[in-house]
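Human:
Take a look at this sequence-structure pair and walk me through the tokens.
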Amino acid sequence: MSQYSALPSAADDIRMHVPYTPEEFSKIQLSLGKKLGPEHISTRRGAGNTKLSYVEGWRVISIANEVFGFNGWNTKMLNMTVDFMDINPENGHYSIGVSCTMRVTLKDGTSKEDIGYGMIENVKSKAMAFEKVKKEAVTDALKRAMRQFGNVLGNCVYDKDYLKNVTLIAKQARGKPAGDALFRYSDLEGGLAKNALGVNQGTTQSPGSTGAPPTSSAPIHMSAVTGDSATGNTALGTCGGAQANAPLIADALNNCAAGI
């Protein structure tokens, strides 16, 4: 059977070793101790028609981002093994099983790891079979590693008494996403940068104007972007003395980043 094993890397040892402040530690510890509400728990039928409770992979990732921060944790696949691949001689269909070990590391160096498994039986496409079982194994291993940090990351679903009682609690309704909660097309067109700079995206051209974009007489200090903390030069000034105007903000930022 084929097997992949990750090579040791010195970067793994130095990437995340930033200790938590006492405030951060207390906040994270409090969050990890909370048990999940019923709206976070999914169910499916298992062997013998038993009811199995679990937390979906995307929820675990979202909760981890909320608890640790989007840059407060990382993952590494330590190994992946194809345990078996059988071909049905009658129809040529595939049955495949894959195991995988994942490690989750927090910014202070604390890490947890566990194994996950993916399996599929009697499918026609070999590529589709491998796609399914590899993703399933990685997600399973990720969730199993995450749950070792605490209840809020899925460990509570292994508590039978909790599962019996949590079903008696009404699920919290999920609000309809709107406004700033959505990432829109305008955000892909420099909208986020303009909002951060306080630029009015709704500027319109008055009748009879020359077509030139409106300008602002007040400089926009961009030392944090340009890195010029000593002089506090503006991003646009650093890029050749251009005045701050809304349509050129995104281009100016890109040019500065490119060193133009």
